[in-house]
Design goal:
The protein has helices at about 5-15, 25-35, 40-50, 50-65, 70-90, 95-100, 110-115, 120-130, 135-145. It is mainly α. Among the domains are: about 5-50, no CATH class; about 90-145, no CATH class. Helix 1 packs antiparallel against helix 2, helix 4 crosses helix 5 and helix 8 (about 120-130) runs antiparallel to helix 9 (about 135-145).
């Protein structure tokens, strides 16, 4: 691999909380094969770790301690609303439709679960209003009526 590839992988490994990314292991392997050293991996990973997921879990536990009667419900509602806003902002019809195409017309388990969950089902309806041409969203709405 070229020097450029090694530098790109190094920047990737040095990004905040990269170890949490789904492709982290394959990137680590590619970095080592491109000439990076295990010591560099350790330095990059320890320097790039921020612990964002752990901080979210900590705040969630604080909410539950502060409100024992409804803390977990409050946390769930906050997380659901944030994820909803992200989905509305970042939904990419072409990417979603390519996922649908990859499953050869079969209903993915995660889509079935979304359709069955009232809040997630509403998100599908809201996304479908914004992205009228999405095959995945139209399919999800049809699946809803088949349940």
């Amino acid at each position: 691999m070229s020097e450029t590839t090694l530098a790109q992988l190094q920047r990737q490994l040095d990004s905040p909380d990269f170890i949490m990314e789904p492709n982290a292991i394959s990137s680590l392997t590619r970095f080592l094969k491109a000439g990076g050293t295990p010591m560099q991996v350790v330095q990059l990973r320890s320097g790039g770790y921020r612990g964002t997921a752990d901080m979210c879990n900590l705040v969630s536990s604080w909410i539950e301690i502060a409100d024992p009667a409804g803390g977990s419900t409050t946390t769930e509602r906050i997380v659901d609303e944030h994820l909803r806003q992200l989905a509305l902002q970042r939904f990419d019809r072409q990417s979603a439709d390519s996922i649908f195409g990859a499953n050869a017309g079969a209903t993915p388990d995660w889509l079935q679960a979304m359709v069955e969950h009232p809040a997630h089902r509403q998100l599908i309806y809201d996304l479908a209003e914004k992205h009228e041409q999405s095959l995945l969203l139209h399919f999800a709405i049809k699946v809803r009526f088949l349940i």
